[in-house]
Amino acid sequence: xxxxxxxxxxxxxxxxxxxxxxxxxxxxxxxxxxxxxxxxxxxxxxxxxxxxxxxxxxxxxxxxxxxxxxxxxxxxxxxxxxxxxxxxxxxxxxxxxxxxxxxxxxxxxxxxxxxxxxxxxxxxxxxxxxxxxxxxxxxxxx
Length: 142
What we know:
5 strands; 20% strand; single chain; 5 helices; elongated; alpha+beta
């Protein structure tokens, strides 16, 4: 069963990456009834839809081998990228090819040395301040 789980994780690696990028909090990823079972809570309907779009890109017949139970957090506050929708307290940034946290920090704060501020605010989705990927949307603290 562990082999089957690893094979399915590899096949749906782009889906799992999208889940991470969209800051979906996973509660389960395992094999159930010979299918990959993914369960989690999305911060928005848009984030949930991006995951479903990616699932369909990987396999149009996904229902035969995947069960995805992704709900939307009813308490989530939507943030508009760069608009400071929470009174300037928090915004997000979409990582572009060639970006680093230092580069984003210089753009946002005027100092590349403030990159750890961004990393600390995103420890739930980032494991290493030197490893970010295009498409990720880290939170940018005020």
